[in-house]
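Lab notebook, page 48
Experiment: co-folding of the full assembly
Goal: obtain a model of how the components sit together before planning crosslinking
Operator: M.T.
Materials (sequences as entered):
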Amino acid sequence: MKRPARATLPPEAGAPPPRQPEAPAPEAPKATAPEAPKATMPEAPKATTPKTPRATAPRAPKTPTAGAPKARPARPKAPLHGTAEAPRRARRMAAPQAEAFIRALAASNPAPETELHYSSPYTLLVAVALSAQATDVSVNKATATLFPAASTPEAMVALGEEGVGQHIRSIGLWKTKAKNVVALSRLLIERHGGAVPADRAALEALPGVGRKTANVVLNVAFGEEAMAVDTHIFRLGNRTGLAPGKTPRAVEDELMKRIPPDLLRDAHHWLILHGRYICKARLPECWHCVATAHCNYKDKVSFRLPPSRS
Ligand code: SF4
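Observation: model returned without errors.
Model output:
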């Protein structure tokens, strides 16, 4: 019953229509579906995704890291030879050369003096004890008010740690130093009748008094031939070849052997002042050094740098 209906409709509109749907149906999907994805998918990702991240990612990190290290290596050029940071030592001077070196410093400053302000062996002892890890200028500012308040061991004990601390708070380690100053003053009263002993062992037995402080007191207050090796003399001894040594004591012993006896008493002042103002740690001012002809330092600075670098 349904078969005749099929026979009437297709033959009229017929024969061609069935062929048309068969032909376009397979051609359209075959041509569009495979070509579109094959042509667009591979080309788009290859050209865009790999190129953009590779070009941007490396450029960003290069700029911040390259700026920091470039500024740092410029500073280490400053010569530190002979310092604790760079303990490179120059060739040891010959004995006549060492004497010529010291005599050149002596000729430029015939009457050297300590830059610490003091009025007695006791105030000298206190000032030197306060000068550890502090400049002479800062110590002088502190003692400008401390010594008028207490210039004797008795007065210092009466002033007490808190009273001393009020005068020396601008100095590093002031709490420890105030405690030591009062303690050493008390011991001076108990053991030495309030006087400063001209004896190394007795001095070094006082709180806050080491070999360097004892050497300064023995040299300046009592005129003994003692060599107090501070950071300046340690650097200068190694850098110039005058007294190479790995420790302050080794430099001290070397200087005591090499410096002529007639110059030994003032040699401490000549060397410390030379190291403080001319043969500086970061930039030795060799261009106006009176002893440059006798110095074995290999990297002498023969020109004046701008003030900001010096
Ligand atoms: S020549 Fe230079 S390195 Fe040598 S002692 Fe003089 S300032 Fe120091």
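Interpretation: The radius of gyration is 42 Å.
Next step: discuss with group before ordering constructs.
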